[in-house]
Amino acid sequence: MEERGNISIHTENIFPIIKKFLYSDHEIFLRELVSNAVDATQKMKRIASIGEYKGELGELKVKVAVDKEARTITISDNGIGMTAEEIKKYINQIAFSGAAEFVERFKDSGEKDQIIGQFGLGFYSAFMVADRVEIVTKSYQEGAEAAHWTCDGSTEFAIIPAHKEDRGTNVILNVAADSDEFLEKERIRTILNKYCKFLPVPVEFEGEVINNPNPIWTKQPSELTDEDYKNFYKELYPFSEAPLFWIHLNVDYPFNLTGILYFPKIKNDFELQRNKIQLYSRQVFITDEVKDVVPEFLMLLHGIIDSPDIPLNVSRSFLQADSSVKKINTYITKKVADKLNENFKKDRAGFETIWNDVNVFVKYGMLSDDKFYEKAKDFVLLQNTEGKYYTIEEYKALVQANQQNKNDQLVLLYTTDADKQHAFVEAAQSRSYDVLKLDSMIDSHFIGLLEQKLEKVTLKRVDSETIDKLIERDETKESVLSDKEKEDLKGIYEQAINNQHMIVEVAPLSPDDAPVVITMPEFMRRMKDMSKTGGGGMMFMGDMPDTYNVTVNANHPLNQRVLNTEGETKTAVARQAFDLALLSQNMLSGAALTTFVKRSFELMTKE
């Protein structure tokens, strides 16, 4: 007997609204319908396991079929099925009321980034691509009769008896004229590979099971070998280098979370490596936008996170406010810190070999999370120009005796480019100072963090001052020049350089030091470095012209010659000494370099 009726709903024309709001995610219909089918099979398995079903369970699976001629997509399962009464309850009442709630909440808000599962909209997402949807179903219950439900996208439905031998449900989508793309088998295969790759029940398409129902994150770590983890990584990222190491997440209280996070070999490029962590809920792919679930500093990791406790309807603002998400974020931070610490303690030498690949993660984490800093300060490594690694405390102990200034501050010297700053590094080493290599993109921020966290410690780049001023002591060097000679020498250099951004001073350095030393003050350098990497409030510094200190060595014989030379040669020699200082730092190029070369030949040939 046929039954017709109206779905009890106040919102008219609900399906066009659903389609409009979910259009950017219209392929999700397949994920939702296949997920529903998987749920039906898993419920069947549970019912059988508690003895409520005595019949033959058979092989539980989901099938997807496309018939281009008939313009249909069919999703079939051999799960629990439904009676006609259950169709009216679950399809006409519960699911549709979820659809109504969705429309009322979002029709005027402009928020489109909602994942539809939260509202029970999974089934009704079918109307994003179909102008008529049919359900042919038979309940597992003994003596149940099959039923056939039809709806054309209005609030009217029809239910008639049907002939179906086996229990389960077939959902048949009669594809709308504007959704022809979903009648292409390759398009359907692509969607299934994206969303259904790890569903817990076999999903069959074109006679082939397209998913892996038992991915390794659902297993216990004790069951798995290193090869299992590496092979799974290769499955996820076939074109990536092997990972450095991994963390198996497995917790069921106070939230449910499983997954595997891999530390990849990273290049110095933040953006290209992002969106490599995939978020699943009960093995259903949700998104690779995992911001807020995963701490910002770990967004460069790769892998899978699976949690039924992460809300699936989330706009970003809702996600941030969700307590489960915050707990998961904290848990992941702790697990990563614990794993790094374990690796460091268990195999210090091995940890040092991968340090260059993981230091960006560690330093970024220390900068962005105080709790992570407290754990990481014991295993973060500092590398010096000789290639040796030290923890913070080890390094402080190394330089304590020789690198304390007159204010009892420990001065840590560093280079951002050991080749370019070679002369300054060499000058520091000649005083038995040690020099750190801090040359990654994040180090300009990390330096400030160390100064903020460590008591009575300051960091200076080796080329930010002359060697005697890098670590100031209560010592005064005598100058061989009188005050007048120093003033004269300063005037000669100012005239020769003729650049208001080069601030000239004459100072008594060692006769073995260079005749002219060009430095940029530490503060100025840092501000400009931070502006390049987006340092908060420092962007304007990038537009300011570079200002340097030019220190003329009063005790160098060349500068005594400058004072004693007559005529234009005096200025030429001063300019030559200045250009040599520029050249030593790769700061001489273009026309200035050409002029320098010509002047060199002239001075060499002049009697």
TrEMBL record:
- Tell me the domain of life: Bacteria
* PROSITE patterns xrefs: HSP90 (PS00298)
Q: Which SMART domains match?
A: HATPase_c
Q: What keywords were assigned to this record?
A: ATP-binding, Chaperone, Nucleotide-binding
Keyword Chaperone set for record: yes
Gene3D superfamilies noted in UniProt = 3.30.230.80, 3.40.50.11260, Heat shock protein 90, C-terminal domain, Histidine kinase-like ATPase, C-terminal domain
Q: Which Pfam families match?
A: HATPase_c_3, HSP90
Keyword ATP-binding recorded: yes
Residues in Histidine kinase/HSP90-like ATPase domain copies: 25-165
The text of the family note is:
Belongs to the heat shock protein 90 family.
Protein name from the UniProt record: Molecular chaperone HtpG
Q: Which organism is it from?
A: Pontibacter saemangeumensis
